[in-house]
Predict the structure.
Amino acid sequence: MTQRLDYAAAAPGGMKALGGLYGYIGQSGLPQRLIELVYLRVSQINGCAYCMDMHSRDLLKAGLDVETLVLVQGWREAGDLFSPAERAALQWAETVTRVAETAVPDAEFEAASAHFDAKQLSDLTLAIGLMNTYNRLAISFRTPPAAAKGH
């Protein structure tokens, strides 16, 4: 795959703004593992190989075991590998990412609100929106994943 455009070089101010939001989310108080799981799940839904590669590597570096990593996509059937809060965050990530299909039903909001307060749910939704933006940039401009750079 050949990268179409280096969007970071073409729009450094925009990327700096996204980086500011990324930094905010990292300091928001949400558990880092939860954030990375959400980033990975959003990227899986969108089919962003660059981001799936990056967030899988980040989760592994942070100590997530391979058995749990490979079950992120099937989190509903993964038993207690994911905490109740992680399951709620993954469900919220799926419904918000698929907003055009789901319209984010009240039941989904209520389920997420049972695990996260208003700030946490706002921060989680910002993280989901951010990853959707990064996915759209990487997919649109064909950013190759690190795993493919040596091939």
